[in-house]
Design goal:
Elements (H helix, E strand, L loop, with lengths): L1 H7 L4 H23 E3 L2 E4 L5 E3 L1 E3 L7 E11 L5 E7 L3 E3 L3 H4 L2 E3 L9 E3 L8 E10 L2 E11 L4 E6 L2 E2 L5 E11 L4 E6 L4 E8 L5 E9 L9 E7 L7 E6 L2 E10 L5 E2 L3 E12 L4 E6 L8 E4 L2 E6 L7 E8 L2 E8 L2 E2 L6 H45 L1
Parallel strand pairs: 2-11, 13-20, 21-28
Antiparallel strand pairs: 1-4, 3-9, 5-6, 5-10, 6-7, 8-9, 10-11, 12-14, 14-17, 15-18, 16-17, 18-19, 20-22, 22-25, 23-26, 24-25, 26-27
């Protein structure tokens, strides 16, 4: 019904004229938009070159090209003319910063593409290829140049002392990158990290991340991994770091077998220490201070050349490094006669137990056999009696 009504109602001349004008304007805008052909966006790196392409698409025989200019609009700053081409007066490069770095690829007013050499981070911005034409006026197209920068990545473990407060044990940095990098950590230790960034004057960003924890002696030598991800990298950059935690010595003494009998030769004690950094001194003493004449010390090893009552005493081993000293004591007892090793006694008992078990099992088997034999004989006797 609405369709029939529209068919019956005549359109007003004013409305028709408005629609025609609108179509003409839209068509004209489409032609204008297509007259100057450029690339919308380009990416480039410092020290490299980039070609900014521009082409005037034929707008008809009535359009006359007067000259073409390349206008640069930095990210922060004012528009500036960097290159001009006039078919009569030739080429001109008004901007001093670009003068020795910009060239026209052709002496062609319709294809005035340019090349910028030795790119800098500050060259980022909008580059407009602008024609002066007659009779339509100026025609233009704009390319956005995005400058990228590969970050300089580094990571390092920091030597710290074991303690009760959270401190930085490693740091990772992605310097002078664009766009800003992302830093992550992989770690089996119970720490946390914080990240900060600093903007450079040329648009680059330096990202720094610190890994922190409450360091213990057990954390020394454990690994944390820094991962840096950024657009210009094919894959994340990684660096594995070994934590360096310093701590005073922890001391133990071993080698004593509780069998120091009179006359025994070469009884030995060892003093072991875990420390970071390595111990600087290891000192053996006894309860009386000095060591008996029968004792020889070589670094962490104490040897009693011949056991006598003089070594019926308490030995002390003291270990030092730059973070302090720790000591351990051990009391040795001298006995009159050699004591049989506990292992041999246990072996004899084990053998005796096994033999006893075998004999017991044999007796049980014999009893079962006799019982079954008796039952068989009884059954046979009963059958004979019945017959």
């Amino acid at each position: 019904m609405a369709r029939d009504y529209a068919a019956r109602c005549p359109r007003s001349p004013g409305r028709n004229a408005w629609m025609v004008a609108t179509l003409i304007i839209l068509a004209a805008q489409g032609v204008v938009a297509q007259k100057v052909r450029v690339e919308e966006e380009l990416e480039a790196y410092p020290t490299e070159s980039v070609d900014l392409r521009c082409e005037f698409v034929d707008g008809g025989s009535l359009t006359k090209l007067t000259q073409v200019s390349w206008i640069w609009e930095p990210v922060d700053g004012q528009r500036d003319n960097i290159a001009v081409y006039h078919p009569t007066y030739g080429q001109s490069f008004p901007n001093v910063a670009f003068r020795d770095r910009v060239i026209f690829l052709q002496n062609n007013l319709r294809i005035p593409s340019i090349r910028i050499k030795d790119l800098r981070m500050s060259d980022a911005g909008r580059y407009t290829c602008e024609y002066a034409t007659y009779p339509s006026g100026n025609e233009q197209g704009t390319t956005t140049l995005i400058m990228l920068a590969k970050p300089k990545n580094s990571a390092k473990a920091v030597t710290v002392q074991a303690g009760s407060k959270s401190v930085m044990v490693a740091h990772c940095e992605a310097a002078d990158g664009k766009p800003a990098a992302t830093i992550k950590w992989l770690a089996s230790v119970g720490g946390n990290h914080s990240t900060s960034s600093t903007n450079g004057p040329d648009g680059t960003v330096t990202v720094r991340s610190e890994y922190r924890l409450v360091p213990t002696a057990e954390d020394n030598g454990r690994e944390v991994t820094c991962l840096v991800d950024q657009k210009t990298q094919d894959r994340p950059w990684t660096e594995v770091l070994k934590l360096s935690v310093e701590y005073p010595p922890t001391v133990t003494i071993d080698g004593y077998d509780h069998n120091w009998y009179v006359g025994r030769s070469d009884a030995v004690l060892f003093c072991h220490a875990t420390a970071n950094p390595e111990p600087t001194t290891i000192t053996w003493t006894t309860a009386s201070g000095s060591l008996p004449d029968t004792v020889v010390v070589e670094q962490n090893k104490l040897t009693v050349r011949k056991v006598d009552d003089a070594v019926n005493t308490t030995f002390t081993c003291e270990v030092k490094n730059k973070h302090g000293a720790s000591r351990k004591t051990l009391t040795t007892f001298v006995i009159e006669e050699k004591r049989e090793p506990v292992q041999e006694q246990q072996t004899g008992a084990l053998v005796g137990g096994v033999l006893g078990t075998i004999i017991f099992i044999g007796i049980i088997i014999g009893i079962v056999f006799l019982i079954r034999k008796y039952q068989q004989d009884t059954d046979s006797l009963k059958r004979i009696t019945r017959h």
